[in-house]
């Protein structure tokens, strides 16, 4: 604990560390807070505690396909979406045709993963603010999704399921019925969540008018995903820059409305995620209807990947925002450079801008509402 | 005043709505298992532990090359001519003794990348997850079924054969070189003779 005298106000200020071992920093994030009493005057996020050299590893591998399991480990909460971005980048680079069935399965898996990720994000957010039971109930639902994943891919968290122009294995015969069953049972749970948490007065008091992110600031900091949509901007890469087969589905882009407080506060960001889960269910239903029953998902996978000299940037909508992969190839068997544009990293830089002037107890709400995963921040 | 009453009513209502949900969950079915007594059954394709059917392995090293974390360590010794290792159940002939096939499960990241390139489908994941150990070295699984004496014998034999082959090759090379030298010598002789002949003829004129 250090005490300093503020040059602006002349007040005695205190510097304390929140994290890296704080339960509500969602991993190993250290926040250096400068406090004037209980008011935060400055926040400095310190990162790097989970750095695993993903980008350097990708250059060291002797095959493009060997990088896919590492992309899983960037954002371990939404591994499928991380893979999706990487394989799409490679497919565009190699100009490969992806079979219809593969695309449909990918979309279903990616949307299921989006729901699972939001469930964890929302649950942990509630947990940080003292709501324990929603967390448990949401985890029960998340467990069902992980069961579907385990049956399909064999793993529960880090799947390595997508391959370039294919999938590592075909889905099991009951996949369609299993997923349809889940969609049916999950719909009422969203209403339950709204009853239990979203419109709970205590929860609203803790999140409304807290950590307000105006539209302009969001643009300036290059926010994306639910954080940007929470500020009322209708921007979703699935609609605005469609990749895979997202242009075939009908769904809405939920945006923040300022229903219980100011537009762009913590509650708006939270509510965008809740509404997004409903939209994901809609996409899954449509994809299940359109999914072809026949087709080899492994037929189009190239034996060896030899990219032409060049570079590519592909952006996809991960549950956290715009996930971009910038890949440079120098004709060899491994990528010359892989750069991941991680939404969590970008959103973390927002933190000092939106938390200035708030109470130290609200810091927890703000960190929870931008839903960062430290694995993705540090990579 | 009216507003305060309204707010308190809303608070009261929202809290009891939430309580209703928790009560319903309280009387609902249980979702957890008492782990050591009850066990979750993993699905068929679950990736929990690597297993190698060593009888089917042909020692092609493809899995070790596919592994991103180098957790598979294979050492092979070429079989000598006098032994026939037979064939795998898929009909591929076996040409190598597998003197070492170690998988370090502490390093393994369960990515399944080694399973796909295998030509005989002898390396695969099994849904077996209770294998924690007190010492990390116990997580190195030795799949080679050769006894140490056997390994030594096989290695010696292979070395001998390799030496023999080397010797044979050297012998052959030597013979070839000799023949070549002989030929060259003959050619040189011929050339010399011709030269002297020419000289003589020239001299005769």
Folded structure, characterized:
The complex is a heterodimer of chains A (379) and B (205). With 379 residues, chain A is α+β, with helices and mostly antiparallel strands. Chain A folds into 2 domains: 2-46, no CATH class; 54-378, Cytochrome-c3 Hydrogenase, chain B (Orthogonal Bundle). Chain A has helices at residues 54-60, 68-72, 79-94, 100-128, 132-153, 175-198, 201-207, 215-220, 225-230, 237-240, 266-290, 343-348, 351-355, 360-370, 374-378; strands at residues 2-5, 12-18, 30-36, 39-46, 162-163, 166-167, 310-318, 321-329, 337-341. In chain A, the strands form 3 sheets. In chain A, strands 1-2-3-4 form a 4-stranded antiparallel beta sheet. Chain A has a 3-stranded antiparallel beta sheet with strand order 7-8-9. A two-stranded antiparallel ribbon of chain A has the order 5-6. In chain A, a hairpin with a 2-residue loop joins strand 5 and strand 6. With 205 residues, chain B is an alpha+beta fold. Among the domains of chain B are: 49-146, Alpha-Beta Plaits; 147-185. In chain B, the strands form 2 sheets. Chain B has a 3-stranded antiparallel beta sheet. A two-stranded antiparallel sheet of chain B has the order 1-4. Chain B starts with a helix and ends with a helix. The chains are: A alpha+beta (379), B alpha+beta (205). At the A-B interface, helix 2, helix 5 and helix 6 of A face helix 1 of B.
């Amino acid at each position: 604990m250090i005490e300093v005298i503020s040059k602006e106000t002349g007040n005695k200020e205190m510097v304390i560390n929140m994290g890296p071992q704080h339960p509500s920093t969602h991993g190993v994030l250290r926040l250096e807070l400068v406090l004037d009493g209980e008011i935060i005057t400055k926040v400095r996020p310190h990162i790097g505690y989970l750095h695993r050299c993903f980008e350097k590893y990708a250059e060291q591998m002797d095959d493009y396909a060997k990088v896919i399991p590492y992309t899983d480990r960037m954002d371990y909460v939404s591994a499928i979406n991380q893979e999706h971005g990487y394989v799409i980048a490679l497919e565009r680079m190699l100009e490969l045709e992806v079979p219809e069935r593969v695309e449909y399965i990918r979309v279903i898996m990616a949307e299921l993963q989006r729901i699972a990720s939001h469930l964890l994000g929302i649950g942990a957010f509630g947990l940080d603010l003292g709501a324990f039971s929603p967390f448990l109930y949401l985890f029960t639902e998340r467990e069902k999704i992980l069961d579907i994943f385990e049956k399909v891919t064999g793993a529960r968290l880090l799947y390595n399921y997508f391959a370039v122009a294919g999938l590592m294995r075909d889905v099991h015969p009951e996949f369609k019925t299993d997923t349809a069953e889940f969609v049916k049972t999950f719909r009422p749970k969203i209403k339950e969540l709204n009853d239990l948490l979203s419109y709970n007065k205590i929860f609203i008091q803790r999140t409304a008018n807290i950590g307000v992110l105006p539209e302009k600031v969001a643009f300036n900091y290059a926010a994306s995903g639910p954080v940007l949509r929470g500020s009322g901007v209708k921007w979703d890469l699935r609609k605005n820059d469609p990749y895979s087969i997202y242009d075939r589905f009908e769904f809405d882009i939920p945006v923040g409305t300022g229903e219980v407080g100011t537009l762009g506060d913590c509650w708006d960001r939270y509510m965008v995620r809740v509404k997004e889960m409903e939209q994901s269910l809609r996409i899954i239903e449509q994809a299940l209807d359109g999914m072809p029953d026949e087709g080899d998902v492994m037929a189009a996978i190239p034996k060896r990947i030899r990219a032409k000299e060049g570079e590519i940037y592909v952006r996809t909508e991960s549950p956290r925002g715009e996930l971009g992969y910038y890949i440079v190839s120098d004709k060899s068997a491994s990528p010359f450079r892989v750069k991941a544009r991680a939404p969590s990293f970008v959103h973390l830089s927002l933190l000092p801008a939106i938390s200035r002037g708030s109470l130290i107890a609200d810091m927890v709400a703000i960190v929870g509402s931008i839903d960062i995963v430290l694995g993705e921040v540090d990579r | 005043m009216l507003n305060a009453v309204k707010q308190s009513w809303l608070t009261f209502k929202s809290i009891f709505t939430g309580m209703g949900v928790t009560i319903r969950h309280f009387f609902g079915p249980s979702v957890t298992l008492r782990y050591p007594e009850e066990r979750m059954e993993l699905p068929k394709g679950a990736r929990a532990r690597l297993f190698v059917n060593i009888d089917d392995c042909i020692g092609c090293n493809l899995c070790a090359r596919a592994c991103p974390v180098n957790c598979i360590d294979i050492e092979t010794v070429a079989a000598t001519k006098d032994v026939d290792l037979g064939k795998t159940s898929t009909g591929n002939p076996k040409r190598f003794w597998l003197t070492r096939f170690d998988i370090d499960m502490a390093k393994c990241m369960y990515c399944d990348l080694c399973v796909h390139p295998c030509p005989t489908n002898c390396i695969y994941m099994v849904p077996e997850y209770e294998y924690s150990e007190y010492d990390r070295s116990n997580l190195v699984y030795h799949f080679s079924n050769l006894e140490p004496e056997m390994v030594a014998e096989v290695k010696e034999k292979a070395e001998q054969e390799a030496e023999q082959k080397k010797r044979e090759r050297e012998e052959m090379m030597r013979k070839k070189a000799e023949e070549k030298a002989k030929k060259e010598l003959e050619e040189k002789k011929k050339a010399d003779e011709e030269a002297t002949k020419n000289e003589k003829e020239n001299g005769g004129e």
